[in-house]
Amino acid sequence: MLDRVAVLSDVHGVLPALEAVLAEPDVAGADLIVVTGDIAAGPQPVEVLDLLAGLGDRVCWVRGNADRELVEVRAGRPSPVDVSNWAARQLRDDHFARLAALPLTVTLEIGGLGPVLLCHATPRDDEEVVLVDSRLERWAEVFTGVPAEVRTVVCGHTHMPFTRLVDRRLVVNPGSVGMPYGGPGAFWALLGPGVQLRHTLFDVAAACARIAAGSTYPDAAGWADEYVRSRHSDTDALSVFAPHDGRSAHR
After folding, report:
1. What is the pLDDT of residue 113?
2. pTM for the complete prediction?
3. 121 FRET partner, CA 20 to 30 A, in 1, 7, 40, 145?
4. Over the stretch 28-38, which tens digit does the pLDDT of each residue have?
5. To 10 degrees, what angle do helices 82-90 and 65-74 make?
6. pLDDT surpasses 60 at 250
């Protein structure tokens, strides 16, 4: 039984944001840190993976679609995302071995919540889209096969934090650490005995300057300006993601 679990999703290779969250007292004092996917696909992939690996058993890793895609790039299947192709060329063999072995889900017993299933997108797929306003039928689809005793499910992937009830089951999206939609800063969640959505502020301008100076990604400055500064609002993101949660087929 774990008393406190910190959940970090969608770091996307942004080292200053990860460092800021790891410095939070409630993260440093948590029984476990769970990183729920899309960890390294960004401008500082090696630094992020090495920092998390250095924490040893304090970190539990879950696979995201971008982590899978990095392994696929290594196998000769390019990604449509430029930064992922670049990031894959930076990684060492040990990085690829770790990413290739990541599980789709983990289930943890957390005080006050019971068994909690944590995944990247949905429990059955690492890139399915579900949103705060997805219809109940869609949630029922993506929760097919989830044991009845699991009453809390953590899903990331869409970079927007929320909590909502779905037929007596609590769904938590911690938001994104390194690539937030809706406002700058790093978003994460603290589980046990309840659920808290957290937001860590850091010096975004300094972080962007550090990424631009330290990353060899050709468009590091532009990437940081767009994503670390959170140029895309939650409204923008919802309008892009919404057609992918199946709602258009049911109109």
Report:
1. 98
2. 0.97
3. 1
4. 999 999 999 99
5. 60
6. no
Report helix, strand or coil for 13.
Answer: coil
According to DSSP, the β-strands at 162-166 and 195-200 are unpaired
The DSSP call for residue 182 is: S
Please state the domain count of the chain.
1
For tokens 């406002």, what's the residue?
Answer: 183
User: How far apart, in whole angstroms, are the C-alpha atoms of residue 142 and residue 125?
Assistant: 8
CATH, residue 36: 3.60.21.10
pLDDT at 118 exceeding the cut of 90:
yes
pLDDT at residue 251 tops 60: no
Q: Is the dihedral of CA 67, 198, 7, 214 positive or negative?
A: positive
Cβ neighbours around 138 below 10 Å, total: 20
Question: What pairs with residue 197 in β-bridges?
Answer: 189
Domain span at 27: 5-250
For 3, phi and psi rounded to 5 degrees? -85, -45
The DSSP result for 194-236, as a single string, is: SEEEEEE---HHHHHHHHHHH---TTHHHHHHHHTTT-S-HHH
Residue 90 amino acid letter: Q
> Checking phi first, is residue 145 left (phi over 0); if not, alpha (psi -120 to 50) or beta?
left
Q: What count of residues does the chain have?
A: 251
